[in-house]
Amino acid sequence: MSLLVEGPPISKIREAQFQFGRLMREINCKITAGEEFKSILNFLFDSLDTIIPYDRIGIALIEDGQLCAKWMKSKIESGNLGPGYCGPLAGSSLKQILETGQPRIINDLVQYGLQKPDSESTKLAIKDGIKSSLTCPVYSDGAPVGVVFFSSGNANTYKSEHIETYLEIADELSFVLNQDRIRKEAMHGRSTSQNVRMLLHDLKSP
After folding, report:
1. Among 72, 56, 50, 15, which Cα is nearest to 165's?
2. 3-state DSSP assignment of residue 140
3. Per-residue pLDDT reduced to its tens digit, 1-60
4. What are the b/e assignments for 169-183, b being 16+ CB within 10 Å?
5. What DSSP designation does 56 have?
6. Are the C-beta atoms of residues 144 and 131 closer than 8 Å to each other?
7. pTM (2 decimals)?
8. What letter does residue 128 receive in the DSSP assignment?
9. HSE value, Cβ hemisphere, 13 Å, CA-based, for 203
């Protein structure tokens, strides 16, 4: 006697596939059109919840041995952990995520906080009402540059299928972050060049 395990209805699977395909096309159109970093991330926040559940999305990038929050958008009040917060990578569980490339699911953040009492970022996330999270690495040219956090105000939110979904959009997200980095470096270069010209002008002036 065989045991039949029922999965999601075919109609729901096809609808999810349709939604995902539409989302990917819109992301690529925005990238091709050269839309700004924050504009694309805001679009993702408003659209991704059809395929990945979340109440908050945050992005943190590596800077001088730290992981610094650069962008965050939330459906719930989040006044404790956000842009401007930096934490050391050395000795952190986030470093392992970046080194292995393996996303991490925590479905009971309160219990995790009890196991990691020294984790300042975990304490702040709990204060913001976060109960579960999916943390995924972001790469550029094969090197880790940061992480993206999907966070929920409910426990037991994330499953392995959500990791698979993230991996489908990882390349697009990496491209968006890399383009923003290049744009900022170009702006910094223009600013530096302008400062040098002003300095030379001042030196030449009597």
Report:
1. 50
2. strand
3. 444 445 455 555 566 666 777 777 887 788 778 788 788 889 889 988 888 999 999 999
4. bbebbbebbebbeee
5. E
6. no
7. 0.78
8. T
9. 6
